[in-house]
Specification:
heterodimer; A: 148 residues; mainly alpha; 5 helices; 77% helix; elongated; B: 159 residues; 88% helix
Amino acid sequence: MENTEPIPQPADAPQPSGLLISNDATHYWPGLRNWSLFCGIMALVGAGFIALFLVLMTVALPNILRTDASFATGILMYAIWFVIALVVGILLILFSNSIGSAARYPHHDTVRKSAGRWLAYLRLAGVISILAVLVQCILLLSLSANMP
Amino acid sequence: MDQHDQTLDAGLHTDSADGMRVASELRSIWLQTPVWAKILSITNFSSAALQFISMLLLVPMLRRLVYLSSSDEAGNNIILLMVIVYLLSISFSLIIGWQLWQYALYLGRSTQDDDTASLEVAYYYHYRYFKTLGWMLISLTAFVLIGVTAIMMFNLSRY
């Protein structure tokens, strides 16, 4: 005899909507995983180069230059870039990991996790890019003011 | 046993041939995503415009410096390389901005209208975004490495 009893669901189970992630859409997930992993590794490599440059600057420069105010500003700028590259790299690798899991095992938890990490990346990249555009504007204004 | 399998399958939220049904938690994340994607897209367009302006300001200054230091062809080649790097960066910024805008547009449409086809297009642009970002990193790294080598060769050739 066929069992027609409703399947028990946990109380906090997410309610499905009418929207579907089609099989065609999931075909992009392995590619997404590979390219986001590559970008994440590149960001980490960039962070490594910045760290190396920071170490060289602090070790190799003569003491007289280290007391300069512009030196401290330069160190601070590079340290900020190092943290940004590191966090972006980690976020991208986490995203590639979760979208890879979603491609292998399409469970709503893995898809939600990947979407959450992508949103975290977008938020961080959005805030950084706004700040970068502002810095570019300031630099351009100072450059045009100092033009002969 | 059958019931146990059905309980496991329910966690997958798959409708076999159609695909996977979107849960409300995922939907709420997707409602916020287009806003940030559009912000990033706009900043990419702004960055492209600012890079273009800075290229227009910097290149004549550098040309004057090369002329004053009476450097030869190598100095002009470095300026040319700088212009190429600027143009590459500007074009990649424009492409990435456009792809993010399209992604935000289609993702927003899919969540508002429960449109599965729009979600497919959104994933396509999501994939294109990362692919373009990857190629931008490859080409800019290559050009910067070429530039550093060219400057080193230029300095060595003077001695």
